[in-house]
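Technical note accompanying the year-one report. For the benefit of new consortium partners, we illustrate the data format agreed upon in the data management plan: each record pairs a sequence with a structure-token string. No post-processing was applied to the example shown here.
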Amino acid sequence: MLDSVVTYDYTSLMSRKALHNISWIKRATKDFADFPLAAQQDAARALTVIAEGDTPDIAKPLTGLGTGVWELAIKERGDSFRVVYALQLDDDIWVVHAFQKKSKSGIATPKHEIDVVRERIKRLKEALK
């Protein structure tokens, strides 16, 4: 069940006016807090760009989940981190998952992480009705 969501105000980080709010599923916020500080800062800058209506260089569509689901690919000290967000659920940009990528299959996002994203988007859609 979707326990709660967190909305961050990124206006203090932005030089322009945001077009969209960034909202977070609570679990994604907790997982994100475990990222190294530099990775968190990279993600915050990228989310700010997204909120302003642009696409940062570290964003790419996450295939297999339909249109509007994207991930930020962050590299920090040899490790890879991902922040998955959805654009087409409502007026907000929703961060639905954050994880350290430990794929044994090259650049592909692990199936388990895709399943987590799919389930969280499903629950979020139900909660937003």
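Partners are asked to follow this layout when depositing records. The radius of gyration is 14 Å.
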